[in-house]
Design a protein that fits this description.
Length: 148
Amino acid sequence: MEARFSPTEATERQLKVFTLGHFVVKNGDTFLSESRGRSRKVWDLFKYLLVNHDRILLPEVIAEQLWPDQPYEDAKGAVRTLIHRLRSMLDGVDLIIFTQGGYTFNRHQDLWLDITVFESSCREARHSAKQGLTQEAVAMYRQGVSLL
């Protein structure tokens, strides 16, 4: 179950996640990661889900990985509450789903992720360089570096 990460320019209505440099989540022109209480635990959860986007994560595993020093009597309840807060902070974008007893990214939800664009630009640059297309390779490397 793999999330769809757009390797192209983001559309206006697409959720955009910037991980290179400062962590930023935007929906259109609205900065979601800088608003609504700025809960560190919620954004830590989002980052953990993002890194593990291709896996279904059990609530107990999420709690143990993110907060190993905090004993949770009800890890499922604690994670469920944070997921609810995260979904609210994402302005109605149906990005996180519950399936098979765990949480994962919605593979049908399109998401723009800067690292995907960076990797795509670098791949295209290497391919262009191998073809002897130096100017195109330089342009693609510049596009990738511009995201840093």
